[in-house]
Amino acid sequence: PFSGIFLVCLFSVRVLGALAGKYSREVNEAKPAGKDGQTVEFRIAKLNQVWEKAQRMQLSPVRHAELHSDLKIQEKDELQWKKMKVEGLDENGEKEAQLRRNFNVILAKYGMDGKRDTRPLESNYLKDHDTKEEDMFADPRLNKLWNKAESSGKFSSEELMNLKREFQHHKDKIHEYNILMDTVSRTEEIHKNVISPLEGDAKEHVLHQKHTELKQKMRDLNQGFERLRKLSHEGFSEDSEFREPRVIELWEAAKRANLSEDELDSLKEELHHFETKVEKHSHYQEQLELSHQKLRHVEALGDKEHIKRNQEKYNTLAEKTREIGYKMKKHMQDLNNKISRQGLEHNEL
Description:
Mean pLDDT: 80
Number of strands: 0
Order of helices and strands: HHHHHHHHHHH
CATH topology of the largest domain: Receptor-associated Protein
Radius of gyration: 23 Å
Oligomer: single chain
CATH superfamily of the largest domain: RAP domain
Largest sheet: none
CATH architecture of the largest domain: Up-down Bundle
Number of helices: 11
Shape: globular
Strand content: under 5%
């Protein structure tokens, strides 16, 4: 009996260990070495070039950590694609084109595409007081809806804070859509002016795939705006399953995806775990910003020992914020894929 219990315990530890390691394995791997033997941040040269350029830019600590998480996701996807290519998959170049597009979106998102971006994006909640109230969301429809909701008297201060997060999330999505549209337009211009090995049907297929992605994002934006309009008029319902905008969006997509009751229940449970991850990430972002402010303050005072202690604390927080950001984005990617794959399977039946 004792050996049986021991084996069960050992099995449980292994299973839990495997689950815990699912999103942290890549993060905790030793840093790769470059050609000169020096350790580098990423295993792909162009991603290291972007990261090195970012060190010289005036990005806020939160944006800096976000860029690292985005580059880590890009690295994972590119390494997976290289394996696919070796196995003879992605013959029509669809995945490769998507990866190139994702990379261009990262460059544009962080102002590294050599093009002046006139669309401001500072979704840092600590800077809300700097923004004029009437132009908080840089979109007339959103501002009008927000002002109406804020002055309606329907919402408690906590509900208004949650609603503001929903509006901010929608603003970020509009920004991402504009960047993607801009990237697609410029890619098409390049396609027109270059004699490409992708001719005829294959080239058409890649262009069609880009437009499909844009159409889907536009549909998501319209559905998101409708949801905000409904929330602003009717308020939050008592039985709201989730609090975080990204999680709510995934849950809404799952309910539209024609899934079975069992699949929805299973997904709901996973989304609750994901929401905890999103909240943890937001908490660390906030702590990172505060730690940075404290470091600037200590630097101004000039006490070297105090500066060293605060710098170490800040560096640890920055590392942790990047790691949690990567795990969260990876999990979100997996959930998106799961919802669209299961929905597709049901539609094909």
